[in-house]
RNA sequence: GGGUCUAUGGCGCAGCCAGGUAGCGCACCGGACUUUUAAUCCGGUUGUCAAGGGUCCGAAUCCCUUUAGACCCGCCA
């Protein structure tokens, strides 16, 4: 693997950006500004996957800039989509009556934004802000209202027969051979999807529709029976997804958009529409797998297993999110909050590699790891390494100290020689590690098998701990008890850790017992005798 | 029906995209040292890199076929 083969910073992001540029050059498009796009769902609570789409697109923007091009990320909220089902946990808001309406026309149940859709989008935008992603925000409702897509809609509707056939051929969906790929918002009941467009009056730029019951999922949405004509240049309505991206790509001059495999078919059709109907080359793409929860189910907005950026940030820092999203793009991954500690530590390792404290033999590998570190820092890496504390250790410590947590954990860390002085940087870590242990501490009672000699030694220890007078040196006492009762000290310590911490090792146990409280420990231990 | 991904020592995974001696963490086993305990140090575990074929001087890595599992699409967005 030679030096010259390495593109940019050696990551998949750089390679992708290079492919993109090469393709644009081949097509011969203007490269003064390369726009990349990311879609934001607005119908449900945005999970980490939606965030990933934007974060990765931003990575590509950074790579493009790094290779000398100007670039911009458009974050586009699909807030003209209709509400299909009520998200888990939002049953009490009486959203039932709004099913089928565009989410930007539904009031915000929480009352803090101009609409339901804006509320949802804001959660994602807030997530992006928190991890440091910069973007240009666009909304579907504005895009349509401003008529930015009206020429594209006209062209698409004029070619609806051709498109309908192509959809059938490309992905086997027959529906658009019969109906137009355009959903007017019913003038009478404000609903989408119920209003089925049957005919396009090309000269008037109007579609004929009738509003009738329609089935979405397993639910029937009531239509109001209204029959009308909608002016595509003035009245509210939207293109079907199968053709909408193409119109948007063209209108915004988008050169890159990543997509999840769940919308693979739509992208395939849209690429065709862009190339063949709108006659604008489609953007470069990359497909990614969905994040799955630990059971292997897709993380869905409507189910309860939502991992949002906000929730993640309670337990891990923004670097851990960025590392997760930038380290690789391929492959289905099962994701859960329990991945956070690993990612927190992995970031520290990566930082050590970047600053040369960890040696990596393979040059290409080193370049790649350093590159990854730079992307996780959004190509603005710190000049100096941060202070590293093993995150799992922090979790263990915060599990033990619930009162005066910050102070006591900090003191322990100094005792251990992990840090020299209390640091505000560490305070933050103690806080999130504490959140983690509070939320996920399962208090698993593990089976500890004890033989008679061990039990005897244990009961002597319990007695010793219960003495009013504090033994001078608990550490030494434990050692002596083990020795004089024919228990291997090594095993005895192990037993104690298993009982107290649920692990086979831990911090130096003498001072540790003092920290928790002798009586407390004696009580816990006595349950095993 | 269509599509995508995954398959690597006991477990979890990296390596695969841009082929060049099969690695990491954990677990486990043995040893060393030690009142040693966030232990540390040394060594180990007979991995057909799912199976078969192809390309190549050389394949875990690229291509084809097969098997198993997962997920997505075939409403809508």
Describe the model.
With 529 residues, the protein is α/β, with parallel strands linked by helices. Helix content is 46%, strand content 12%. The strands form five sheets. A five-stranded parallel β-sheet has the order 3-2-1-11-12, with helices on both faces. It has a three-stranded antiparallel β-sheet with strand order 5-6-9, with no helix packed on it. The mean pLDDT is 84. The structure holds one RNA strand of 77 nucleotides.
In the predicted model, the low-confidence regions spanning at least 5 consecutive residues are none
Return the CATH class of the largest domain. Answer: Alpha Beta
How is the quaternary structure best described? Answer: single chain
Compute the number of strand runs: 14
Mean pLDDT across all amino acids: 84
Summary, kept brief:
By secondary structure, the protein is of the alpha/beta class. It folds into 4 domains: 244 residues, Rossmann fold, CATH 3.40.50; 58 residues, no CATH class; 57 residues, no CATH class; 75 residues, Orthogonal Bundle (Arc Repressor Mutant, subunit A). The model has no long low-confidence stretch (mean pLDDT 84).
